[in-house]
Every structure is written in C-alpha cells, then in structure tokens.
C-alpha cells in the first residue's frame, strides 16, 4: 500500500496529491497513530478516485480511414458507407445496429479507448453529438476512403482526407479553449491526450494501385516518388498537429494490403498467396514511416511518436490464424464474389458467415472485431516487436 500510493499519486497528478504526497503522509502516520494513519490513507484513496477521473483520463483523438471511422461517413454523400446492416451486428453499445463502423463490432480505436479508461467512445466530428462536454473525452475524425494524399479515395465521390481531418481538429482545439480555458486546455491536450493516426492503406488501394483509373499516375510517378510524396505530406500533417498541442502520437503503419480478401479475389490468388506488389509498397512506405517518426522524435521537443506495427501484427494473424482460434484468414465473413467473398462490400444482400469471431476478416477489406481485439491488446500492452518505442499503456502514463 505505502509503496503503491506514491506511484499512483504521481500518475494521477490530482490536486490533492500534488499538495500532499500520499505515500509520505501514509508512512509518517503509520508511525504516529493508527486512527490518523487510517484516516489519511482513506483521504488519499478518496482523493485519488475522485480527482482521478476528469483530471487524468484525457482525450482520445482519432484520425484515419475506415479502419477507425466511427460514423463520420454517415454524414457525407459518399459511396463509402458502413451504416447498413449487418455491419455493427456485434456492437453492444448500439444493440447490434449499424453505426458507420466498418466491422461487426468495435474498431481498434474503440477498444484502445476503453482499455485506457475513457468512459465514452470518441464522438464522430460530423455527428450532431460532437458538441459541449462530450468532446472532452475525445473526437473521431476518421473517414472511410480517406488517405494522406488529398486525391486518395476520389472514386468514393466524398471522404475526409487527413488534411481536412486536421482542419476539423483545429476547430475542436478552439472549443477546448472555451470549455477549459486556454491554459488548462493546453495542459490537458499536451499531457493527458493521445492522438492516433491510422492511415495510408487507401493511398495505395484507392489511389496508386487502382485498376484503370491509376494507370496514368503509375506511369508518371514511380513507387519511390509516390511514397516520397506521402511521407513529405505526412511530415507536414504531423507538424500541424504538433503546432496545435498534440504531443503523444501513435501512428499505424500500413498493413499487408496484398493479403486482404479483396486483393486476393481480384488477383485470383490461392488461399495462402498474397499480392506481391501491394505488400512491397506497404513495406517500403513502412520503412520510410519509421525513419520519419525517428526524425520527428528528435526534432519536435516534448513530442513522442510511437509506431504501431500493424503490418507484422496482421501478418502474424494471417500466417498463424489457427493459433489464435480462427478458421480462415482468407475468406471474408460478410461479402460476395469470387472464392474469398472479396468483390462486393458487406451489405444487406451479402452472405454472412455463422461464426464471426472465427474469421480474421469481417469484409473484403476490414478485420473482424475478434482480430481487432488481438491487435488492440498488443498495441496496449505488447513489446517493441509490435509497438515502439513504448506501448500505449506506457505512452498514456508518460
Ligand atoms: C447522440 O447522443 C444521444 C444521447 O446521448 C444518443 O441517444 C444517440 O445515439 C447519439 N447519437 C450518435 C449518432 O452518437
Ligand atoms: C482537396 O480536395 C478537395 C475536394 O475533395 C478540394 O476541394 C480541395 O481544394 C483539395 N485541397 C488541396 C490542397 O488540393
Ligand atoms: C488553425 O486555424 C487558424 C484559423 O482559425 C489558422 O490561423 C491556423 O493556421 C490553423 N492552424 C493549423 C496548424 O492549421
């Protein structure tokens, strides 16, 4: 108890614990009088739980694409939509109704927020609910079809690219000043809030690698040139977030996009084959991303950039799916077309598997909630193999 309390006190930074160090008081009191020591320890415990909440939970700001969209596209005239059944069928908070999440249950962003103790899922920026105190626990700006490059996802007619997502965060940032006052707002955002960015896959899938539409771009720009553009753009985007007081960042790298049911189906691959070019581009981008984050960790004082190694994590699930209790890592649970149900997105007329937690992929593009849970836990508590230089639990406590 006595060694545990001071650590909690420092972690919580609550008013009472800054003015009295609970551990010291507890240790002194233990030598003085039993009743006093008990009362003081109780006072400390009460203050810890009372001030612990609002002062320390912080906000979770979620940027990215359909992997973490929690409903922004519901409010856009777009061809990329997930607020149709059976999406969300296992999402408890909505009683199984679709919410705009591109999976059967929770996204990685939802699970991470939950495990870090945030009481509500970050509200979608475009939802009418993203006003007042609701935003203090975080806001979700992610949009299905969005990418680092502004042109990415234009086949969907509408989507929020990362530039626009950061413009929206700029609006939220001003709302925080109004809600908390400028000095508290700055502290809350810098010290207690986490900025997660899950983006890049669409820059390949729905831009550079698009059949037919992208042929022009691929002739005029080499993979190296395109990835250079992506990294340079992302550097500016992350720097803008830093200027708006973001300090604790986690950036997902691009997963093995050559292994998703959509790519396997359109390229008519066998069960355990993946599309080489797509995976090669993802790996090339990921290695540049790692260098960029190392650069920014050195260049932007007070910032911590963590890279989530989504590529290796998802590849591990795909390669050793049986070890994790899955029966397939190639066939989408919900979808239609071809041998991996990978052509037509999940919707009311799709066929759906019975055992949704035994499929790595929910639909032609997105992992199931069961896969998201395994991924999220590795990011929260795992080793530097999958999340580095620190895991999300450690980032939270920095
Ligand atoms: C908005 O908040 C209300 C009340 O809390 C809730 O019933 C509703 O589902 C929310 N809507 C969205 C889109 O989150
Ligand atoms: C980005 O795309 C939008 C349309 O989606 C366009 O209105 C805007 O001007 C573009 N921005 C830049 C910087 O190209
Ligand atoms: C945020 O918005 C203000 C205008 O309200 C603008 O002057 C500023 O440059 C923006 N900051 C960033 C980093 O985009």
Automatic annotation (TrEMBL):
Q: Does the keyword Protein transport apply?
A: no
Key word Zinc-finger present: no
Supply the alphabetized keyword list. Answer: Hydrolase, Lipid degradation, Lipid metabolism
Per the UniProt entry, what are the Gene Ontology biological process annotations, in alphabetical order? Answer: lipid catabolic process
Offer an example of a GO molecular function term for this protein.
Answer: hydrolase activity, acting on ester bonds
Recorded family membership: Belongs to the 'GDSL' lipolytic enzyme family.
The name under which this protein is listed is Ankyrin repeat-containing protein isoform 1
């Amino acid at each position: 108890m006595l060694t545990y309390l001071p650590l909690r006190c420092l972690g919580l930074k609550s008013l009472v614990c800054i003015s009295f160090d609970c551990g010291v008081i507890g240790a002194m009191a233990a030598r003085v009088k039993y009743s006093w020591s008990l009362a003081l320890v109780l006072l400390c415990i009460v203050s810890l739980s009372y001030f612990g909440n609002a002062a320390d939970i912080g906000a979770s700001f979620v940027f990215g694409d359909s992997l973490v969209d929690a409903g922004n596209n519901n409010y856009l005239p777009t061809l990329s939509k997930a607020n149709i059944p059976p999406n969300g069928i296992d999402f408890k908070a909505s009683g199984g109704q679709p919410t705009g999440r591109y999976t059967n249950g929770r996204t990685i962003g939802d699970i991470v927020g939950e495990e870090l103790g945030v009481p509500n899922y970050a509200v979608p920026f475009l939802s009418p609910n993203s006003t007042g105190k609701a935003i203090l626990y975080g806001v979700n700006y992610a949009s299905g079809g969005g990418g680092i490059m502004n042109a990415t996802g234009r086949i969907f007619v509408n989507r929020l690219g990362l530039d626009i997502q950061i413009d929206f965060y700029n609006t939220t940032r001003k709302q925080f000043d109004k809600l908390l006052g400028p000095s508290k707002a700055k502290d809350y955002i810098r010290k207690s809030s986490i900025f997660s960015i899950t983006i890049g896959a669409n820059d390949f899938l729905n831009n550079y690698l698009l059949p037919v539409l992208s042929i022009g771009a691929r002739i005029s720009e080499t993979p190296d040139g395109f990835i250079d553009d992506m990294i340079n753009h992302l550097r500016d985007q992350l720097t803008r977030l830093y200027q708006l007081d973001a300090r604790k960042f986690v950036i997902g790298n691009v997963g093995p996009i050559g292994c998703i049911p959509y790519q396997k189906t359109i390229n008519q691959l066998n069960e355990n084959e993946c599309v080489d070019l797509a995976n090669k581009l993802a790996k090339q981008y990921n290695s540049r991303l790692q260098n960029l984050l190392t650069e920014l960790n050195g260049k932007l004082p007070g910032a911590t950039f963590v890279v989530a190694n989504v590529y290796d994590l998802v590849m591990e699930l795909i390669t050793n799916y049986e070890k994790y209790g899955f029966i397939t890592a190639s066939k989408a649970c919900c979808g239609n077309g071809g041998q991996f149900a990978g052509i037509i997105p999940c919707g009311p007329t799709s066929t759906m598997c019975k055992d949704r937690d035994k499929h790595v992929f929910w639909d032609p593009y997105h992992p199931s909630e069961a896969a998201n849970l395994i991924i999220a836990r590795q990011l929260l508590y795992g080793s530097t193999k999958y999340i580095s230089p620190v895991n999300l639990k450690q980032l939270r406590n920095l």
